[in-house]
Design brief:
heterodimer, A: alpha+beta, seven-stranded antiparallel sheet, 20 strands, globular, B: three-stranded antiparallel sheet, 31% strand
Chain lengths: 456, 71
């Protein structure tokens, strides 16, 4: 089908079709990591050779790396040469492919989120990637790699303006910062979050080493030290990843949606248009409790499971009061303190000895709320009109106890609501009531945006 | 042993599948499967005869269009 053969959007006459291309420096940014490796290895090798006083033994290695870099560059060049994108009316069209042409169209009113991502290599070159998320699989997302930073920002603003129906060709909408996470608090929070039972792994090494030493097994001692070093590296890496990706975390409110910005070396600026958040959870790791900190994560259709912990974080750490106010505002009129919740029947202790007391659930006329966790606590919130489907399950033990579990399905993401250990009749009643509530909530209602809460 | 009840609002259905595995094919039966935007939705009607399955699929599709609610 030739591009542009579909009828124009409902706006009437389509504006002149603008066509854009990717930035010429894209190949370097795409091959950034490999090119960096090549340069580093070459420099290292040359320095070593000079120290050793000549001898050309390293050249085959350089040839391999050079060929690799060349392949990456050529692939990047082909991508740049054969990719173009067009923004017209309410649609984004991307044409790609050298041999097999492919034309992708995205209806902007279906866009679930727009991210501007700057990986380190691209950032150094002043480039940025625009990632457009639509509902559906992670593969359905469109990535424009790379554009110059101002072009990327203008494109994002324009697309969001069109997607929310505010207008076309708009400049960046003004934003109001709601919360900005201080560095010290982020570092402390990440360290305390990581300090969980997983640290037990760190003890394996030293125990092995000591036991080996005492019994004269030098090999065991060596293995112990290696195991310890390995776990230490793994944990340090995880901590670094989390801190660097959540660095300078800022949440702002703007007319075209919620803006989330974060990153130390690679930065990400996410925008979620109004009404695209499907579900939210407020989570509190055990050691955050003395500080009253919580983190907030969200389900957005199309964010998927891939690097979801980065993209689905709404606030990595904040005071509980602020987090609850933020969630309440975002979902529109939720008061977590007042929402009535109930507890499983006492016989549930036979299935979940201590935890049953923490498995709370309840609903008002707009939201379903489920709490769980004895040590780390989590609160799930799903608005009724976002409910995808409902399930009731009962395994053999549950049936023997006359219990059942109630599941509320949302789009893919961190929020997976499950109400365990309910009386079978109660669970059934919960399901029936929820069907009614969801049906009522799907009737369109006028939405009013209240002023956003700000963190002090 | 394991009991399950799934409710899918018509307006939430994204697509309806009719499929048949090798065993089902041998018995001339098919399964109708409902998909929503949630990956965890697991709504299947097993062991239908092909004409019944097609009728069910068409009814569901019609109802889905009538109640369409987006996301």
């Amino acid at each position: 089908m030739p591009p542009g053969s579909e009828a124009a959007g409902p706006e009437g006459a389509p504006p002149p079709d603008e066509s854009f291309r990717l930035h010429a420096l894209t190949p370097i940014a795409l091959g950034g990591r490999i090119l960096g490796l090549v340069v580093a290895f070459t420099a290292f090798g040359l320095a070593q050779q000079r120290a050793a006083g000549g001898g050309g033994n390293g050249w085959p290695t350089y040839a391999v790396f050079g060929a690799l870099a060349l392949v990456v560059m050529v692939r990047g060049l082909i991508t740049v040469a054969f990719t173009s994108y067009h923004l017209s009316g309410g649609e984004l069209r991307i044409d790609t492919g050298m041999l097999q042409r492919r034309s992708k169209r995205i209806r902007l009113d279906r866009v679930q989120g727009v991210d501007v991502v700057e990986p380190l290599a691209a950032r150094i070159l002043g480039l940025a990637e625009v990632k457009v998320t639509t509902a559906g699989s992670e593969r359905a997302a469109v990535r424009l790699r790379y554009l110059s930073r101002p072009v990327a920002q203008a494109l994002r603003a324009d697309m969001l303006g069109r997607s929310t129906g505010v207008g076309e060709g708009l400049a960046e909408a003004p934003e109001r910062v709601l919360v900005s996470v201080p560095h010290g608090r982020l570092i402390g929070a990440v360290l305390l979050e990581m300090a969980s039972w997983r640290l037990v792994f760190l003890l394996i090494g030293p125990v092995l080493a000591v036991v080996g030493q005492q019994n004269g097994h030098r090999a065991t001692a060596g293995v112990g030290i290696a195991v310890f070093a390995w776990f230490a590296i793994v944990i340090a890496h995880a901590i670094w990843q989390r801190i660097s990706s959540m660095w300078e975390f800022t949440v702002s409110d703007s007319p075209d949606g919620l803006r989330v910005r974060h990153g130390l070396l690679s930065t990400t600026r996410q925008t979620v248009p109004p009404g695209r958040v499907q579900a939210v959870l407020i989570h509190q790791p055990l050691l955050w409790r003395p500080f009253g900190w919580v983190q907030v994560r969200m389900n957005v259709a199309g964010y998927g499971n891939v690097d979801s912990s980065k993209r689905s974080t709404l606030v990595p750490v904040a005071d509980r009061a602020f987090a609850e106010a933020l969630v309440g505002w975002l979902l529109g009129g939720l008061d977590l303190q007042r929402l009535p919740v109930s507890r499983p029947p006492g016989r549930a202790r036979l299935r979940s000895p201590l935890w049953w007391r923490a498995q709370l659930a309840g609903a008002d006329d707009r939201f379903f709320v489920a709490r769980h966790g004895l040590f780390s606590r989590t609160t799930d919130v799903v608005p009724h009109q976002r409910t995808q489907s409902l399930r009731l399950t009962a395994g053999p033990l549950e049936r023997a106890l006359g219990l059942a579990s109630f599941h509320l399905d949302s789009t893919r993401g961190p929020v997976r609501t499950r109400v365990s250990n309910r009386d079978a009749a109660e669970a059934r009643a919960m399901l029936d009531r929820q069907v009614e509530r969801a049906r009522a909530a799907r009737q369109p209602a006028p939405s009013v945006r209240a002023p956003a809460p700000r963190s002090t | 042993m394991f009991r399950k009840l799934t409710v899918v609002p018509y307006g939430r259905m994204q697509l309806v599948d009719v499929e048949a595995g090798p065993v089902e094919r041998a018995f001339g039966l098919v399964t109708v499967k409902l998909h929503t935007a949630a990956a965890t939705t697991d709504a299947k009607v097993r062991g239908l005869t092909p004409p019944d399955a097609e009728a069910l699929r068409d009814r569901l599709t019609a109802l889905g269009e009538a109640h369409a609610a987006g996301l």
